[in-house]
Design a protein that fits this description.
The complex is a heterodimer. Chain A is mainly alpha-helical. Chain A contains 23 helices and two strands. Chain A has a two-stranded antiparallel sheet. In chain A, helix 2 packs parallel to helix 4. The longest helix of chain A is centred in the first third of the chain and has 35 residues. The radius of gyration of chain A is 22 Å and the shape is globular. Chain B is an all-alpha fold. Chain B folds into two domains: about 70 residues, no CATH class; about 60 residues, no CATH class. In chain B, helix 3 packs antiparallel against helix 4. The N and C termini of chain B lie far apart (about 55 Å). The chains are: A mainly alpha, B mainly alpha.
Chain lengths: ~500, ~150
């Protein structure tokens, strides 16, 4: 423990340097603005800034991109609460009760609870990262290919069970994402699959153009006939104070969301998106008045917001300790560090302690910066949403094109983005959830590799997944959720998801 | 089951089934290997089969979904215009260069689609393209495409 605090002290010596503080501040501001703009989530923001970090030292690069990441997580909640537009996928659940609170005249309280929940969860996540990373890394190192296969399968079933709407549709979208992930060179045999003669597809389909197309372009296409966007009512500063009752009702959801989000965040294959869905479902289940959910329950804002911020921090545990990305954002951040010749993993913590501990300390600083920024300056940030939509959407489209092009300086990525935008638009019209597509794409290589390695280990015997306790437990849990999800389909009864209004969640 | 009587889940389920069949067909080019040593075509086939089954399930259970004829597409025309404009811009990006392409794209969106005043259109189009090129291309050193005249 003494070592930990000594290392943390070293980290603060790094994080509190003026230039590092300046970049942390800049990252938080950029992230908040990016998160507020529909179509530009944390992934697009980080991708756009990635080339700019090549000239910086690795600590500053990590601090800047980390600031963008958790700034965007908070920024996304602002538009969810005020306009029912999720700035990024993890904020979808916040739309339900956050926007209902706005309609009830409690927008200020919802924003304040979201900010406080994000701060508490972010700080909890950083403490968890600092204290638990070595232990969890050791545990995760015991995972072999069968455990990883079972873990990833379980992640998909959790996603399907917890997502709004139809379970078969969610599973179909996950399968679609997995198929997209099959494009490119097969790592084990060297075959180039489904490239249709396009050389650039040999490297596979990148997550950035797919995510920007599915979430950004499709959003603009869906609102093409909407004219002016919804009116934004900016809450006054004095309205930001939640009532004593709202505070009391939020304590439990924030605590549970922080813990749940952190645990889900460290599991490769899960992400802040899932954590916010799970947290919402949990709070709905635990509530004595579940009928309030969907109509402005503060717990429906506090839980998911805390969970997604804690998960965002938790995702750094496997990234820093093992060098494993848990999602597209951490994958891009690993790329940012590797440009400087540093490979994240156990050796980085030993050999470059100032980088690891400087990053951990900068996350504390970033959380404070976000709390200071987001509560008093929410009115200032929301002015961005007052730009007439007729001017806003062409600008966003240009940023999307620019962001996708700049990742690998390839026009093929822009074409992929446009195709996925059109596909995403059609899928949304037919009531499909798009988040599983992105998750499937990211996890496809890991799932394929672990499945094939498992079969190679067992000489083709599928019972290897039943012979290993950890894998068996995860598979049983996944199958249980699958059966629970299919039950209403067979019995025509409504399950808890329709009761809580998840089927009414906007895309 | 004639096309106009189809319901949206039935159509989307059948489309997913068609996609699965297409992937399965394309997958013939890759070796499946054996269960002991799966080849390059093994996992795509597994996923395609899964997608096909789910697509069929969606189609079969789709009788209670909204009829296709009742689906509303009020934004479809403008959405198609936006997509086509972006596609033309993408093609032009490496031929005309970033600045001219983005300028033209913004003129189309603001002037043609949104009917904004010429001065506002010109200010936004020129300002956005030059400033974004300066920040992203010059300051952040992203090699954005240039046209024949260095633009």
């Amino acid at each position: 423990m003494a070592d930990t605090f000594q290392n943390l002290l070293l980290g603060f010596q790094v994080a509190l340097q003026w230039n590092v503080l300046g970049y942390a501040f800049a990252g938080c501001v950029i992230g908040t603005l990016v998160g507020m703009m529909p179509g530009l989530g944390p992934l697009a923001g980080i991708s756009l800034l990635l080339p700019a970090t090549f000239g910086l030292n690795p600590i500053i690069a990590m601090v800047l991109l980390g600031g963008v990441y958790y700034g965007a997580m908070y920024g996304g909640s602002t538009t969810s609460i005020l306009m029912r537009i999720p700035g990024e996928a993890a904020s979808v659940m916040t739309c339900v009760d956050g926007y209902a609170m706005t309609q009830n005249g409690r927008a200020g309280a919802a924003l304040a609870i979201a900010a406080i929940g994000s701060f508490v969860a972010g700080t909890f996540g950083v403490i968890g990262l600092m204290l638990l990373a070595p232990t969890l890394a050791a545990l995760a190192l015991r995972f072999g290919p069968p455990e990883y296969t079972a873990l990833l399968m379980m992640g998909f079933f959790i996603l399907a069970y917890m997502s709004g709407g139809s379970m078969p549709k969610t599973l179909a979208m996950a399968a679609f994402g997995l198929l997209l992930g099959m494009i490119g060179i097969d790592a084990m045999t060297g075959y180039t699959r489904f490239s249709f003669g396009v050389i650039e597809l040999g490297d596979g389909v990148g997550i950035v153009p797919v995510a920007v197309g599915l979430f950004g372009i499709s959003e603009i296409l869906m609102t093409a006939a909407a004219g002016e966007g919804p009116k934004v009512r900016i809450p006054k500063f004095r309205e930001l104070m939640p009532s004593a009752r709202e505070f009391k009702d939020s304590v439990g959801p924030i605590a549970r969301g922080s813990l749940l989000g952190f645990l889900i965040g460290i599991i490769p294959g899960s992400a802040h998106v899932i954590s916010s869905f799970v947290s919402y479902g949990l709070e709905r289940r635990l509530s004595k008045h579940p009928e309030r959910f969907g109509k402005g329950a503060i717990e429906g804002v506090a839980g998911p917001e805390s969970a997604n911020n804690s998960a965002a921090t938790g995702a750094f545990v496997p990234m820093m300790a093992l060098g494993i990305p848990t999602g597209p954002v951490t994958a891009v951040m690993i790329a940012a560090v590797m440009v400087h010749g540093i490979s994240p993993g156990p050796t980085m913590i030993q050999n470059q302690p100032e980088l690891f501990w400087g990053f951990v300390a900068s996350m504390y600083v970033g959380n404070v910066v976000l709390l200071i920024l987001n509560l008093p300056l929410v009115g200032l940030f929301v002015n961005l949403l007052r730009i007439p939509y007729a001017y806003l959407y062409p600008g966003i489209l240009c940023f999307c094109i620019l962001g996708c092009y700049s990742v690998s300086n390839s026009v093929v990525d822009v074409w992929i983005m446009l195709i996925m935008g059109g596909v995403g638009y059609a899928l949304r019209k037919f009531g499909y959830d798009l988040a599983p597509v992105a998750l499937g794409l990211v996890l496809a290589p890991m799932l394929e590799l672990s499945l094939r390695q498992s079969l190679a280990m067992s000489a083709g015997d599928y019972t290897i997944f039943l012979q290993r306790p950890i894998a068996l437990t995860m598979l049983c849990l996944g199958v249980l959720l699958l059966l629970l999800g299919l039950k209403p389909l067979l019995s025509k009864k409504k399950d808890w998801r329709s009761k809580v209004g998840l089927d009414e969640v906007p895309d | 089951m004639s096309l106009p009587r189809l319901r949206n889940d039935q159509l989307s389920g059948l489309m997913l089934l068609a996609l699965a069949l297409f992937v399965g067909w394309q997958n013939r080019a890759y070796p499946l290997g054996s269960v002991q040593e799966p080849g390059a075509g093994y996992t795509p086939l597994l996923i395609a089969v899964f997608l096909g089954v789910i697509g069929l399930l969606i189609a079969l259970k789709g009788a209670s979904s909204e009829p296709l004829s009742e689906m509303q597409w009020p934004e479809a025309k403008r959405a198609a215009m936006i997509l086509v404009a972006c596609a033309v811009a993408t093609y032009a990006l490496e031929h005309l260069g970033y600045r001219i392409t983005v300028m033209s794209l913004l003129v189309f969106f603001l002037g043609v689609m949104e009917h904004k005043k010429p001065l506002a259109v010109a200010s936004v189009a020129i300002g956005f393209s030059l400033l974004s090129f300066y920040f992203i291309g010059t300051l952040l050193r992203v090699p954005l495409p240039r046209g024949p005249l260095g633009w």
